[in-house]
Write a structure and sequence with these properties.
Layout lengths: L9 E5 L3 H13 L2 E6 L12 E4 L5 H9 L3 E4 L6 H8 L8 H8 L1 H10 L7 E4 L2 H10 L4 E5 L9 E4 L8 H4 L5 H15 L5 E5 L3 E11 L5 E3 L3 E6 L2 E7 L5 H18 L3 E10 L4 E7 L9 H4 L4 H9 L13 E7 L11 H4 L5 E5 L10 E8 L3 H13 L12
Helix pairs in contact: 1-11, 2-3, 4-5, 6-8
Length: 407
């Protein structure tokens, strides 16, 4: 078993986005110094770390330079090139290990790994060409979700097809007169939407809920699992989440067992978020894996004795894992760049008048539509009560043309 890397040491993070920023803040609170590697020298983490190495995520020399100056390396983003991971690992422990990213980085490979391991996934097909994509759409009756094999987070590199839906690909769906022609036209449009590259095509399922479980696993194999969060997406971007999600104890137990088994099978040292679907017929299916802190568990920072970012530092540094049972339920709502459109400024002071509401901004410069700029967190006596407070805080931002709070 590895010896603890004690406070006073230096932690390296591959990636300096908002997750890197919040991990760095947690590490500094514990007494660590932090270095990050990011293509942007003015990344979100830059103001709160001792050193930024400005380099691409596929630069082995830069990754090696980061690792030589720290005691352990972790990451906050999946798109680190294998060569860079290997270079970093030559000079410092990398937690989670490159083998974890190898499985997760490619959605096709990830689905195959889950299926081979006996973990439940919904029906899917692989598509590496427009012809294979259209054939998959036809096989699933025109109701599919498609995701690029690489990247494509927060709605990018993704497409949704539903022959009964309005909007989206409606024009493509109406392009032909026969059902097969409509599906083929929609498939071609969706193929372009996911970037005309290898992708996963999943059958659209009737869902009761979307949830996620965050598992922390230490160097010694010890694990703790946060309560399942209940998640709600708008335009394939997480809009709000509650922690805990208010699920029945038997479902919570099933979700914990499934997520922990996946973390152990992968050999994760660090964090693993397992996104799950609960179907209307009671099945619990794995959607995607993320071996890092996760948007859906930002509420852990206010609700739990050990927030997810401190937990990552503990796991990476071989410290004992912290307690995760929430003291009070929490809810978060994401703040996207749309709120700043046309030079507007959200009224954060008004939002903070709501009891139990707190604000986290990520220090990003340009507020583009769809870009995550921060989040509101609220505490309450129940998950629904916390969500109501978050909703009230969001309403007080005073942006009249924003999308309405979706429930």
């Amino acid at each position: 078993m590895s010896r603890p890397i004690l406070p006073g040491s230096t932690l390296g993070i591959l990636g300096g986005g908002q997750l890197g920023r919040m991990t760095a803040l947690a590490a500094r609170s514990l007494g660590y110094q932090v270095h990050v590697l990011d293509p942007d020298p003015h990344c979100a983490a830059a103001p709160v770390v001792e050193k930024v190495i400005a380099a691409r995520f596929d630069d082995p020399k830069a990754a090696a330079a980061l690792a030589r100056g720290v005691s352990v390396v972790t990451f906050e983003i999946e798109k680190i090139a294998p060569e860079a991971l290997a270079a970093a690992e030559q000079h410092a422990p990398l937690r989670p290990a490159p083998a974890v990213l190898h499985v997760v980085q490619d959605r096709v490979r990830q689905k195959r790994w889950l299926e081979a391991g006996g973990f439940p996934v919904g029906p899917f097909r692989e598509a590496a060409s427009e012809e294979e994509f259209v054939a998959a759409v036809e096989a699933f009756g025109g109701r599919v979700f498609a995701k690029s094999s690489f990247g494509g987070y927060d709605g990018r590199g993704q497409a949704t097809l539903d022959e009964d839906a309005e909007g989206g690909h409606r024009e493509a769906l109406l392009a032909g007169t026969a059902a097969a022609d409509r599906r083929a036209a929609a498939g071609r449009a969706a193929w372009r939407a996911v970037g005309e590259g290898p992708c996963v095509v999943e059958e659209a399922l009737a869902l009761e809920a979307e949830l996620s479980v965050l598992v922390a696993r230490g160097v010694d194999g010890a694990t703790v699992a946060y309560p399942p969060a209940r998640n709600h997406h708008v335009d394939r971007i997480l809009h709000w989440s509650t922690l805990p999600g208010g699920f029945d104890p038997p479902l919570v137990e099933r979700a914990h067992e499934l997520a922990t088994a996946i973390a152990e099978a992968l050999g994760v040292v660090g964090l693993l978020c397992v996104e799950l679907f609960l179907t209307r017929d009671g099945r619990l299916l794995v959607n995607e894996l993320a071996p890092r802190p996760h948007n859906s568990h930002h509420g852990s920072e206010a609700a739990c004795p050990t927030g997810q970012f401190e937990q990552l530092v503990r796991a990476a540094c071989a410290l004992p894992l912290g307690a995760v049972e929430p003291a009070r339920p929490s809810a978060i709502v994401n703040l996207l760049g749309d709120l700043w459109a046309e030079g507007r400024t959200p009224d954060f002071a008004a939002a903070l008048e709501v009891p139990g509401v707190r604000l986290t901004l990520y220090g990003k410069g340009e507020a583009r539509p769809g870009r995550k700029m921060g989040h509101l967190t609220a505490l309450g006596d129940t998950p629904d009560g916390a969500l109501a407070r978050a909703r009230e805080g969001y309403a007080r931002l005073g942006i009249e043309t924003r999308k309405p709070f979706s429930v």
